[in-house]
Amino acid sequence: MRLFLKLIVILNIYFSFPVFAQLSSAELFNQISLRQDFYNDCLFDDLEAQIDANLKRSDEFSIDNQAILLYSKATQHMCRNEFKLADNTFKKLINLPENKINKNYYMAALLELGVNVAISQSGDECQYINLAFKKIIDETHHNIKFLIQRWHISYCEGNQPVIILRKLYQLLKTLEQNNYLHLKTGVLHEIANQFANIGQASTAAKIRDEAINLTIKLNPEGINVEDYFNLTKDYIDAGDIVNAEQSLDNFLSISHKQKDDSYLTKLKLILTTTLAYEKQDFITMKSATDEMYTLFNDVDNSFNSNKMNILRVIACYETKGADCVDAFMSNIEQHLNHPIDGKNTWLIKFLVTYYIENEQLEQAQYFFELYTQETKIKLIEQQSSAQVLGVAQLNQNIVEMNLRLAQNNLKTSRITIYIIAFIAFITIFIAVLFWHLSKRHKYLSETDTLTNIANRRAIFKALTLLEMPAKDLIHAIVMFDLDNFKNINDTYGHTVGDLALQHIVKQVKQNIRKNDVFGRIGGEEFLICLKNMDAELARNMIERMRKSFESSTIILEDGTELSITASFSLYLLDKPIASFESIYQHLDAGLYEAKKLGRNVIIEV
């Protein structure tokens, strides 16, 4: 026995196992406390297994220690870009009794939730950030305090850009006085964001480059892909193609060292597309936007803001992709009514060209005038925003140079507008005389507009195209129907009914994988295909989904809590199918049986 223990000690030393490989709970909490800085996310990779093990028996710990475990787990998710999992974990933390939690952990969780909401544009980030801001006290950890102040100044005070920048520079001065250089980099990035928002892309790029160089000086491993993503975007917006390409190379170099996930893929495709647009490389644009549309449409909000969708239709138009253009134009009112994209110069320029080609001269003239107006407004904003540079304590000569540059740009723009007008009228004249092209307008929608998931036609087609499952695995086909849905519509109205459908779709998306198929086949009936899964795992996933419906509620405007359940029918498919209709009949019969059994059950057929 002693010989065995000696061997273990020797192996432990030889392989450099960490001394805390088998920590007690007290030692684990001590390690977390020693490392926690409320700034870096990737601090606990070597402790993950022990954090997970302690979370499983978290009821044995105090509320404060439960919060520490939840925060540590959430930051691990953040480190891996698993933002939805991180948000769910942070929400568990803030739902604990606040008076029993260390205030730093509570406020840090609120901050992280607010930041994630802001990045994903999935709601009002200020509901979390304002709450955190109100709770700042002298004893608040300095990292949390300054990060909350930074986000509150930038997004939640409702100030004009000039005032935001002035306050950010005041915050920057405070950080320098306290030698908090690691926090200075974040404020520099935020200042760059504000300059980018007011059209000063060149200034934004300079400041962001300064922030990145400071990060490299402080901690070369601290650079992340988002830094180079934003820097590349600044250079693209400034028209600096050479530096944009160099920055894109740096982005790709760093992203290759990290986990290859959908988030990084999305950032890469956004940069590739926008850089290709500046270079007028429409073939590369088409390839990148098609890939992004295939990977991310209907899965997250990548196309909800439509900016990438606009670039996609421009690429389609320039590469003669008629179907893509026709589909986009059939829904043009939605794009024009979007609060962000309705004044997007990419969209307006495209519409001018499109309507000229299609001999719709009145519309072409309208959008040409709108383009002229928007161009002037942007140039004026850039010109007036030059005063902000004084806040940065830059040399007065630089301010004057930027003012002259903005004025020259305005003059150049006027000349450009006159040239564009001349070319436009010549093009219209040629179009009237010689262009008699008939365009085929066809729009085959494969999306359910209410829930933004696949419709009946699309999902039936996808299931017909299923390939043979991998060895020892199956495709699990699931059909479910919301229980007593008619009563919801009759009692609360169709608006609440629509809200209930959207709520259920959100619950399903949180329980399935990105490569699974999910669609609405009509009314309150939905269909899911869990591809290449172990049969028992599929059964457990559906049961988990059923329970998530049962346990989650919708809170109506009058405070009423509405609970929704569903009946499920499950079919395990172990081979390809020629037609889905026969399986659909089995699933429909299973649903009928589930309703007979009292609803809110799963029937395997």
Structure keywords:
single chain; 605 residues; alpha+beta; Alpha-Beta Plaits; five-stranded mixed sheet; two-stranded antiparallel ribbon; 9 strands; 7% strand; globular; disordered N terminus
Strand content: 5-15%
Tell me the radius of gyration. Answer: 28 Å
Low-pLDDT stretches are 1-21, 298-305, 383-406, 435-443
Amino- and carboxy-terminal Cα gap: 56 Å
Assigned CATH superfamily of one domain: Reverse transcriptase/Diguanylate cyclase domain
CATH top level assignment of one domain = Alpha Beta
Strand order of the largest sheet: 4-5-3-8-9
Q: And the CATH topology of one domain?
A: Alpha-Beta Plaits
Going by CATH, the architecture of one domain would be: 2-Layer Sandwich
* Relative helix content: 55-70%
Report on the structure:
- A hairpin with a 5-residue loop joins β6 and β7 (561-563).
- The longest helix is centred in the last third of the chain and has 39 residues, at 396-434.
- Helix content is 64%, strand content 7%.
- It has helices at residues 2-14, 25-35, 48-56, 63-79, 83-94, 103-120, 126-134, 142-156, 161-177, 181-197, 201-218, 225-237, 241-257, 262-278, 282-296, 307-318, 322-329, 332-337, 345-357, 361-384, 396-434, 456-464, 485-492, 494-509, 535-551, 581-596, and strands at 447-448, 453-454, 474-482, 517-522, 525-533, 553-555, 561-563, 566-573, 602-604.
- Among the domains are: 19-134, no CATH class; 344-440; 450-604, Reverse transcriptase/Diguanylate cyclase domain (Alpha-Beta Plaits).
- The strands form three sheets. A five-stranded mixed β-sheet has the order 4-5-3-8-9, sandwiched between helices. Strands 1-2 form a two-stranded antiparallel sheet.
